[in-house]
Design a protein that fits this description.
The structure is a single chain. This protein has 180 residues and is an alpha/beta fold. The protein is 40% helix and 12% strand. It is built from six helices and four strands; from the N terminus they run H-H-H-E-H-E-E-H-E-H. It has helices at 4-15, 26-34, 43-56, 70-82, 128-134, 162-178; strands at residues 64-68, 86-90, 115-120, 140-145. Helix 3 (43-56) crosses helix 4. The radius of gyration is 16 Å and the shape is globular.
Length: 180
């Protein structure tokens, strides 16, 4: 929750007038405490963590939930159930690394919560070409960041900078939330 990526995005959203609350899944808290890497918790534990955070915040009301990669994926699985006003996924993992035929999109077809996905065009977990072929529902808006990877970092030869892509992501999220 305090990676340079998350720090930059959170500060940018706050700068734009949005309230941001960050949390860690149990496996990430344990990584921090023990100083060792461990795999993510089972899906039910991750979904329960989202429910607990929403409850701690007093319920949804005007709450827009989301996250980076796995955090956004799990948020997409609970958004309807918690009554979120909106959903933001930064670098959604549409498929596991190196397995573009193992899609993580089935639940997205029935998702009712207005959704914004911000994705790098070169994201190895879902490139622009792959995503455009998925036939996602129109209520899921996808904003592509030119030459960005899974963390939105472009190649030097693209002429873009990581900061430009992060700022573009912040502006896309701000506009989406303000438009809800």
């Amino acid at each position: 929750m305090d990676s340079p990526f998350m720090e930059h995005v959170a500060r940018g959203l706050v700068r734009n007038g949005l309230r941001v609350v960050r949390f860690e899944f149990p496996y990430m808290r344990e990584r921090r405490r023990a100083g060792t890497r461990r795999p993510p918790d089972p899906g039910n534990v991750l979904r329960r963590a989202w429910h607990e955070v929403v409850e701690l915040l007093g319920g949804t009301g005007d709450l827009v939930i989301g996250g980076k990669s796995l955090g956004g994926r799990i948020a997409s699985m609970v958004a309807d159930a918690v009554g979120a006003r909106g959903l933001v996924c930064l670098g959604y993992p549409f498929h596991p690394p190196g397995k573009p035929d193992v899609l993580r999109t089935a639940h997205l077809r029935d998702l009712r919560t207005p959704t914004l996905v911000v994705q790098g065009t070169r994201d190895t977990l879902g490139s622009r070409e792959e995503i455009e072929a998925y036939g996602l529902p129109q209520r899921i808006r996808v904003v592509f960041l030119e030459d960005g990877d899974h963390s939105f970092k472009p190649r030097v030869k693209s002429g873009r900078t990581e900061r430009q892509n992060l700022e573009a992501a912040i502006e896309a999220v701000t506009g989406f939330v303000q438009g809800l």
